[in-house]
Amino acid sequence: MKPIDDLLEIMRTLRDPDKGCRWDQQQTIETILPHTLEEIAELVEAIEQNDIHAISDELGDILFHIVYYAQLAEEAGHFNFQTVTEGINAKLRRRHPHVFADSKIDTVEQQSIAWEQIKQRERKQRANISDVNVSLLDGISLKLPAMICAHKLQRRAATVGFDWGGIEPVLCKIEEEINELRQEIENGADKAKVMDEFGDLLFACVNFARHTEIDAELALRKTNRKFTERFKFIEQALAAKNKSLTDASLDEMEALWQHAKAVSRQA
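Below the sequence we write its predicted structure tokens.
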């Protein structure tokens, strides 16, 4: 028996009404979702830590969740695991005509544009509506993490030329947004207006990340991790002196912060 067939059989056994697992028997697509999100977060952490063993382990957990959803859908008469695999196989061939067909695409940029054009045709076919009623931005969920969503919106708009010509105008736009934010603060604007300008600034920063091929979400995650490590260094250094954060002055914490930065640069 192939490993994937074995996994499918394990899933069916877990869901079996008579000899299955009580907990697994009670689950639905909705109740499994929070656990799936947790597994994805654990995979992200394993990748960021470059823990190859953990990456393999977490991928197995996510594969199990895919099988779980397929089993639940099959029981409800919607689709099964074979439907899922056949669908992704067909989609990959359809979206790579330069690999599986005779379409000629020479550059990564041309490939990105063609990819979005193919997806746009697919959205129209699924919706079965006219071009007038289909937006280029359809299919991008606003429930995504904000930076990921901003990147997708910008990239999609760029496929029709709605984009900055290079890095320099993006930097100018960031400076413009900073000035507008500063002006609103100096004018005593309310929180809503300041938040609006701050959002524009973040959107412009994501644009810079996209133009420099930086993953804005990953960049911020790395900074969050870096901040955590350096802050914990401050706590540990103070604890070694029998002091707490509340006992230390800002100058003392700043000095330890700079020391933590120096140590991390040498690592």
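Residues 109 and 159 are 9 Å apart (CA to CA).
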